[in-house]
Amino acid sequence: MQQSSGPLAGLLVADFSRILAGPYATMLLADLGAQVVKVEGPDGDDTRTWMPPTRDDVSTYYLGINRNKRSVVLDLKDPDDLAAAQELARRADVVIENFRPGGLARFRLDYDTVAATNEKVVYASISGFGTGAGANLPGYDLMVQAISGLMSLTGEPDGPPYRAGVAVFDVLAGLHVSVGVLAALHHRRRSGRGQHVEVNLLSSALSGLVNYTSGYVAGGTVPYRMGNAHPSLCPYEPLPTADGELVVIAGNDGQFRRLCQVLDLPDLPDEVAGEVGEGGDVGGVVGPVCDERGLPPLP
What keywords tag this UniProt record (predicted)? Predict the structure, then answer.
């Protein structure tokens, strides 16, 4: 591995995470120049067995989130291997783990123990549901997609719930970890002390639902599955044409007027405005197929 010249060059990251959220975060840090040492148990990271697809008999899932890292196999139940893991954590600038809360305490690799001999360490813990209720539940993306409500928003209005095709909340949590670590490193530069960064998938999920969570909390609106339609904009979806579906987006009144001009319907925006009521344009914000809540009606 060549010496990095990235912005995080010179930082040592001890990666005790596996599967997706943690490895994704450490991969981003490695991409920015940090030296990442990935610690795997004797059986390896679970994603090594998640195949197909493969490249040279190695899972592409594993390859996709573990580039630019060094790797070491350590059995934490072996005294010598455990001592090596503890020494790695003592030397590290950043430690990232995604065991269940408290899971590393028996190996003396938890934050309090590591920070006792490495007060500058930035230690990031990733869990499914935090350290309160649900702390003992495993943090799988599919579970969080269901609990957060994302699956109730995905699919056709009269169809079953669907998971997103990608493990979106694992990835989002990994991004949140990397942001938290960078902020903690900035804090350390000013104060000389490390911090404990805690991220959980459910909180990342609720953050990632942004406009839906805001609509529920601030507007009292319960979202529901709408297919490809948008709760606040229309048109903003694939629409049928003679030779297939075409994605049509009108994100504001100006775009809606230009769309109507292209469709040779220059009077439509004013007709729509008249249907909704006096007061000006509605364009891509509220259209004739939206109800009084700004939501397309259920079929």
Answer: Transferase
